[in-house]
Write a structure and sequence with these properties.
Length: 177
């Protein structure tokens, strides 16, 4: 099983099946509660990101294709160390590719343009050596993500689930190769 397949399995486990909770902005085709049609989310594929997709009938193979094309490839998942790839991939699915890459670039102290390019990739190797290795890089990445999430208006409603997800990730990341 390659890194993508391993990361996909972890993220899919966090995202779960179909949900049409009207309090979730992602379930609405216009990305805001009460705006557009509440089509829901399935396997982390949301109506806000895919407004024309028939979310309830989406199957796991279709979701996997979308995950690879629209998330994994955009974060250059194959170029990242597997544990870091899981963190960035999970964030891309949950909070958007651009935002997940910005967090990575800010953590690496490179120009934050939201696109994984040579400067981002080149900064990873030195950031994973020295005291703590990649642990400090991953911890800083997750702290940026947590700070963002706690500032969202929906934190009071979804925060406990998001926190559980974030606190599981470090343990899950050490199993990805």
């Amino acid at each position: 099983m390659d890194s993508f397949d391993q990361c996909f399995a972890v993220v899919l486990g966090s995202e779960g099946g179909y949900s049409d909770d009207p309090n979730d902005p992602g379930n609405w085709t216009e990305g805001r509660v009460g705006h557009g049609i509440c089509k829901g989310t399935k396997f982390g594929i949301s109506a806000s990101a895919y407004p024309t997709l028939d979310i309830p009938t989406l199957d796991q193979d279709q979701a996997k294709t979308l995950y690879r094309r629209d998330y994994w490839e955009h974060i250059s998942g194959d170029s990242l160390p597997p544990p870091l790839a899981l963190l960035v991939f999970d964030a891309a699915v949950n909070s958007g590719v651009h935002r997940s890459v910005i967090w990575l670039q800010e953590t690496l102290d490179v120009a934050a343009d939201g696109v994984v390019g040579p400067a981002t990739i080149d900064a990873i190797e030195p950031a994973t050596h020295g005291s703590g290795g990649g642990i400090n890089l991953c911890a800083e990445y997750l702290s940026r993500r947590l700070l963002f999430m706690t500032g969202l208006p929906s934190w009071n409603y979804f925060g406990a689930g998001w926190a559980r997800r974030l606190f599981r990730l470090p343990y899950q990341s050490i199993t990805v190769q």
